[in-house]
Model the fold of this input.
Amino acid sequence: MIYRIEWKEIATLTYFGEINFILLKWNELEVQKFEDLIYDYLETLSKTPEIGIYKPQNNCYSLVISKQTTLFYKIIEDKFQIDLILFWNNRQNPDDLSKLL
Done:
């Protein structure tokens, strides 16, 4: 079964935040590589949603996308849906992460 991907508002905001950061620090080619990487992971995730590490304290999964970025998501089994919660820049203060999840 293929799971449907649902982007939550904060996931969309943090995704574009990462895009803007990459664009400011590097260039459009690196942005395209990041976008391709994300969509490759989302395609894999839609087929095998439990590839991430389950975080019981937040009732969600985490999946390291790159050295800099981790995706947090939830699996909604009865709807065959994956809710993308947050794209997290791993260099940020981890205390701030718990506030967002």
